[in-house]
Structures
1.
Amino acid sequence: MKHRLAAVLLVLVAVSATLVTGAAANHGRHHWRAVHKTHAVNAARQARAHLQRYSFSGTLLATPGANATAVSLQVTAGNSPALRAMLGNAQNEVFNTSGSEVLLWSHGIPHVGSTADLQAGQYVTVNVRAPFGVPLAQIESTPAGTVSQHAAPGASQPLFLFVGTVNGPQSGGKVTLNVNRGNHNALRLLVGQPTTQSFTYDAGTIFLLWQGRVPTVIDPSQLKASDRITVRIRAPHNSTLAQVEATPARHVGDHEPGI
């Protein structure tokens, strides 16, 4: 009887040890999975933290069609990272739209659409998230998060076009222009005023150097003395000269054709 009881006790001890070992191993597996998941989440957060938004705006050069994987855009504006990336590159660019969400804005309300809703000549904004400081080619090959079709900012406001020369490279958010021409809106503001005026630019102002009919994005420090410069500003019709000069230019052109 004693031997049988001892045997039973030995079996119970062995089973208990097995259960404890199994529970510990199972706990270890769950702990490893939790740690691995935490590392994965942290890695994803760090990857997102090293991305920034590149926003390019302009008119569509062609109708992309249904299920299009790319759009051709004549870039006329953008945020600072986008315009920095475009320095030295052509104004007409192609962006990857594989899997991008297309938003159609109407009366301030966005509606989800598709590339089939986009038409040549429409104004769109392409938003891409990519690592800081990467080349334009890498940004363009990265699928855009959104492609938004909307009215061009300030399109309903009249254009003030000033034409003249600069004395050399520009900086500090101002372009000082020796004005010698302009459209009616611009010239009427200069009646009785000095011909040398300073115009504001900001991160959204695009600077273009025209070589023939091919524009290249440049930096204001690349403007050269005696070059023919055009400054385009959209502002309310009844704006004063000071108000127009304080409004950031949309576009500054160097040797723009047809002017």
2.
Amino acid sequence: MEVFAARDAIEHYQRARDLLAEVARTGASRLAEPSPLELEHLYARPSRAYEMADEREKTRAAYETLLALGRQLGQVEIGEYEEVLEFCLRGTELARKTQNAFLLWLNLDHLGRAYEVVLDLEEALELRGALGPQYEVFSSIRLCAVAVLSDDWEEAYAHAKKVHEDRTSFNVLDIFYLHHVVEALLQGGDERSAREEAHRFAERAESNERERIAYLRSLAVLSEFEGDTGRAIEHLHEARALAGQIGVPGELWQTQSKIGHLHEQHGEEREAQEAFSLAAQTLRELAQKIVDEELRERFLSAPQARRVLEHG
């Protein structure tokens, strides 16, 4: 009976994920929470399955785990990083109680993303590596991102190749890592695969503002690789405008920082300083939302943040 319960939980999580993916389609500020009736429908069947096995505690834990996952998707986007980390730590604790391998993997994966956005890449990498080989196909894209952010290009390329060869995506947010995959493939000398990765998301990016940001950042990576810095900056300016419009500060500061880096390479000091200053301002605004002093300091002292703050 527990096998059927797990299968039902997966099916209903996928439906819940589709509802919550509205944050990816329209921006976090426009996300509406599922109604109580929708939630009851999504979780009634797995709940009954567990209850038949007299495992009501697992039912409640599974329900709370999935609900926490849904909430944190939107919180990551709007920059509530401390709250996201708390959600994910709590969700992982609950997932362990369910003794459901799928839910535990799901929560560890999201906890890794939470550590990633607060720039604690060592914790993120440790969690990604603990997900297990059976979930490697789903984890490779995020392992690639952590490796890129850590400037570990050999590891990044290995994971990017797996992403490209498997062409399997389980998480609606995987496109947000597209530019990392494209850059890792280019660093590994695989220009053809890099272009294929960017191209396969072109149609989706036309109708989805949030996904268009990731696509534009990928085009900027390709333009920089071709030596067309001006075109790369144009793509990044469009991505920055969209990030500001739909309210995704994590994308905003990273895009601003990249614009500054490209201007700096061209000796355009005034434009570079302006971009770095905007990136630093966005970073400080994100840090102000973090109440825990130790977490805030770790965030601001991470190499990726420190480089921006030193320029800005």
3.
Amino acid sequence: MGVLDDTLDFETGEDCVRCSSSWDVSDDPECASLRWESSYLDRIDGAASDIPHIPLAVLEVIESSMTILELDDDWDGQGAGRYVFPTWERMACFLKRLATEMFEQYGVSISSPKIFPAGEGSIDIHWKTDTFELLINIPPEPEDTIRYYGDNKFGNTPIENSCYITHPDRKLLAWMSLFL
């Protein structure tokens, strides 16, 4: 099992949780339910009772995003490579953690994002509503940080940061709670 240690993001001063390079999502008890050998929604029988605070629509978006793994080499016409399961699984675990922490810390159920293939093997999680837009990029390398950018539709309160994928940072959660 990988070792988690609390660190400080020196660019922002935010607390983040960082993992050792040997971390694997299969080591994370929060992601134990994300074993995708069979249909995820079939296993939860539509109730999501074993996955507290995660809206069923979010689980459906996660499951449907598995089509990213079916993309062939050069899917974008510019030489992009195939997507690999570990990147997709990190995205799914991160989105699950984000939904859980938003509910536990702010009492907010997140809306369903769009999930897209992005450049260089990364995956984008994207929300666009009447009040805000947020893009979170999940990199293909497990030791790389996620990057995110968000803006509200009123031109103030933008957010841009990076943090380790093992835990959504407090700044992101607080910002999202203002607009969900």
4.
Amino acid sequence: MIKERFKKVKAHVPKSSEENKQFSACAVDEGDNFITIHIKGAPEAILNMTSSICGEAGNIEAMPLSAEEGNLRSSFDNCVDEMAGTPLRVIAFAHADMPKSTWDEQLQEHQGLSPNEVLAKLLTGGPLSWLDIKLVGAFGLQDKVRGKVKSAIKHSAKAGINVRMISGDMRKTAEAVALEVGLIKEEDLHKSEYIVMDA
């Protein structure tokens, strides 16, 4: 079953920190003359691509461009912030349907590129309004902190070593982890000397 499903994958774009690409995607031949593009990645990256959202009952609603009190984008942002502060690594996912004829046209138009490169170009090369990418939702994953991390940080601080944390997670997730392991205190979040660098 998995092998048969894998054969239907027409292209794959991996996440790449070098290219600052905060998502991965694959194009799957779903039959019925459609290619479905499945995308997952950082919520902010996925939100910037989406033009609509799948509602609770499966209905499709337009995704507002900016978060305003009570609108769908604001509700989604609040949900992501809540999960990130738990701390959870938050991953959003979306999809878009494309007629096979359009996919074939894209391959024809970019003959010098591989299918993977064509898919990457579709998702990063300009306006995506014609593609109608639909936000499906988000989920949170928790990476448990190893048991000796907190004591190691404590001993390092006593020895005069300044411990710094590098993370690819959202800022709120990184702050929650730093609080959990004792790298910072709650009051540090409001101090000017508490510095977080965003890449």
